[in-house]
C-alpha cells in the first residue's frame, strides 16, 4: 500500500467515525478517495440503507441516480449493489449491458466506469464507483487500490452505522420513557380526582383517547397542563457510557 493510500485510509476512518450525517460524510469520502487513488479519478459512492439511497462523491451522482430511477436497466453501480460483484465498463461507446444508463453517463462525458461493492457482514450495501473521461481509464493498480479502499470503507461503515443505530435506539428509548412518565403523572391526577384505582384511571384515559382519536400520551400531557398550568417537564437521562451522542 502506498503512503498516499495509507494516509487516505486514516483520513477516511476519522471522517466516517466522527460524522453523524451519512450524506455529508459520503461527499467528503469521495473527495478523499479521489486524492488517494492512482490517476485521481472522479468518484461516486452509493449506500443503500433501510430502503433509502445515500449518494455522494466528486461528481453529480444525484443527477445520475435520479435519471436511473426513470429508466429500466440497473446501471453499473446498482448492478454492483444487487450482485455484490465488481463491474468494469472500459469503454462506454462499446457498452451494451445498460443502454439507457450508459446514454446518461455519456451525456455527462463519462467514457469508462469501474465499481467495487461496499460490504457489511457479507452483504453488499453500496458501491464505490470510479469514473473516467477516457476509455480504459482504470488499470490494474487503480482497480487493486479501489478494492482495498472499498474493503476499508465497508469496515468503517459497519462501525459508523452501528454507532448511529445505537444512538437512534437510545433516543427511541428515551422518548418511550418520557411518554410513560407523562402517562403516569396523568394517571396519578385522575386517581386523586376520581378516587379510583390505577387500572380504572387508565381505562378512563384510554376511553377518552379513543373517543377523541388522540394518542394516550398527548391526552395525558393535556391533563397535566390543565391541572398544573404547565406542560409536562422534560425527563432527564444520564447518557450511558460508550454510546455516541448525537
UniProtKB/TrEMBL annotation:
Domain ANTAR: 163-224
Lineage: Bacteria, Bacillati, Actinomycetota, Actinomycetes, Mycobacteriales
UniProt keyword list: Kinase, Transcription, Transcription regulation, Transferase
Gene Ontology MF term list: kinase activity; RNA binding
InterPro entries according to UniProt: ANTAR, CheY-like_superfamily, GAF, GAF-like_dom_sf, GAF_ANTAR, WH-like_DNA-bd_sf
Short name of any one Pfam family annotated for the protein: GAF_2
Stated name of the protein: ANTAR domain-containing protein
